[in-house]
Amino acid sequence: MTTNYRPSAKIIAILFSTLLALFFSGCSVVSRDVRTSAATGLNFAALKQNPGAHIDKTVILGGYILETRNLADQTRLIILQAPLDFVDEPKSRDLSRGRFILIHEGFLDPEIYEKDRKITVAGRVTGSEKTRISEHDYTLPVIRAVEIHLWKKPRQRRDLYYHDPFYDPFYDPFYPWYGPRLRYWYHPYYYR
């Protein structure tokens, strides 16, 4: 006697969403322990509006470094916030909702943590600090770092067109068909 068992759509959806959650949680640059302790549903706009209501909550934020200042026992970074993608890499700075201050106990070299580098941080909210940007007063959330991930600099590309000095386009009967020459145009050697 054979039975044709077919799982219901609900069971398939639960299995699929569980597998997706496991896959995407493994792609994050933030450790699993910190990720599980982080506040869920807390977006940057709410944090910026009332940092005092979220003191001691762990948050995961990212953005672009604007300033790195080393003090006697800590480093202060001012970061332009940007939303994070599924691997916690900051998206475009044009999507920013503001700035925040990151405090790291110890020294961070300003030549490495330089302006415009992408950064993802996990840390605890410790309050806010008033600062002046141009002629405006702002209140910035202050985060004490638990984990920091500095993203690699994007590779600068040279001109994609590779000019062969011995190539005469008027002599080639197949000009402008570039066929096999494309491998030279996009070869990694021609990138910085």
CATH architecture classification name of the largest domain: Beta Barrel
* Mean residue pLDDT: 81
Which structural class is indicated by helix and strand composition? Answer: alpha+beta
CATH fold type of the largest domain: OB fold (Dihydrolipoamide Acetyltransferase, E2P)
Instruction: Determine the strand fraction and express it as a percent band.
Output: 25-35%
Q: Which CATH top level class of the largest domain fits? A: Mainly Beta
Counting structural domains, the number is 2
3D shape: globular
End-to-end span in angstroms? 67 Å
CATH superfamily of the largest domain: Nucleic acid-binding proteins
Helix content: 10-25%
Polypeptide structure, described:
The longest helix has 17 residues, at 9-25. This protein has two domains: 29-150, Nucleic acid-binding proteins (OB fold (Dihydrolipoamide Acetyltransferase, E2P), Beta Barrel); 156-192, no CATH class. It has helices spanning 9-25, 32-37, 44-49, 182-185; strands spanning 58-70, 74-81, 99-105, 118-133, 136-150. It has 192 residues and is of the alpha+beta class. The protein is globular and about 75 Å long. The protein starts with 8 loop residues before the first helix and ends in a 7-residue tail after the last helix. Mean pLDDT is 81; it is low at 181-187. The chain is built from four helices and five strands, in the order αααβββββα. The protein has a five-stranded mixed barrel.
